[in-house]
Design brief:
It comes from Pedobacter gandavensis. The chain is mainly beta. Helix content is 6%, strand content 63%. The protein has one domain (2-241): Beta Barrel (Lipocalin). The chain contains one helix and 13 strands, in the order αβββββββββββββ. The longest helix is centred in the N-terminal third of the chain and has 15 residues, at 2-16.
């Protein structure tokens, strides 16, 4: 099990040391849909206060639809940061392997959002400058998820919990629609982001699992504001109703 923890812990450390960006990624939707009629819903929160919700539904055995949203409001003495994002998508789902307990999902989607940042400077507790940035943006993405419903087990506090794992790769293009600094228009920026994602789920019941998610965020373009400074480290809960029964060892 150690091999599944090393990479997520690396990205968790990267989150704390990340640079500032007007774009804050949401938790990628990794619903692990396995059969027609399966419903997935999740809620996640990061140490920075970025809250994400995810929902997905398997319309058929091989087609699923997604909805995701995130919101963050972080107010401090010298810096405020507010961020909103919603996205929808759909794509191909399938199961494979000896017991059909491995899952491949390929999704594409579209979304949009906004970000506001305030930077303040003080001299002996007296405000001497204030800079306000306002951004609206649109986003397109393609994402490939691989996961397994085959369980490993963790003994914790005298209890035995089932674990399963997954990974995803998301490629997103995010482009500004508007960009203002102190109400003055600025040159708009865009970027292409690559996000490798790793998640671990711990089963609490047949439907409910705790999920730990970590990821990196890498930008393919050199930008000043639309950078790849923010990565993901979240804890959340996921509910899956329906689908193929998990296979245990």
């Amino acid at each position: 099990m150690k091999k599944y923890l090393i990479i997520p812990l690396f990205f968790a450390a990267a989150t704390w040391s990340s640079c500032s960006s007007v774009y804050m990624p949401n938790v990628p939707n990794t619903p692990m849909l396995s059969a027609k009629g399966e419903l997935s819903a999740g809620a996640h929160i990061s140490p920075k206060g970025n809250a994400s919700i995810n929902g997905a539904y398997a319309v058929s055995n091989h087609f699923g639809v997604l909805f995701s949203g995130s919101y963050m409001k972080n107010e401090r003495t010298r810096k405020d940061f507010r961020h909103k994002l919603v996205e929808i998508g759909g794509g191909y789902i399938d199961t494979f392997g000896p017991d059909n307990n491995r899952i491949i999902e390929i999704y594409a989607g579209y979304g949009g959002g906004s970000a506001n940042r305030n930077f303040r400077e003080f001299d002996n507790d007296v405000l001497i400058s204030n800079s306000q940035e306002e951004v609206t943006f649109t986003k397109t993405f393609i994402q490939v998820n691989y996961s397994s419903k085959k369980n490993s087990y963790l003994n914790l506090f005298g209890n035995r919990y089932a674990l399963n794992y997954g990974t995803a790769i998301r490629i997103s293009h995010v482009g500004m629609n508007t960009f203002l600094i102190n109400n003055i228009g600025q040159p708009k920026e865009d970027n292409m982001f690559i996000e490798p994602v790793f998640f671990t789920r711990m089963k609490l019941s047949d439907a409910v699992q705790l999920q730990y998610t970590s990821s990196g965020n890498f930008g393919l373009k050199d930008r000043k504001f639309m950078t790849a400074g923010n990565s993901i480290f979240t804890i959340g809960a996921v509910v899956n109703l329906g689908g193929k029964k998990k296979v245990t060892n």
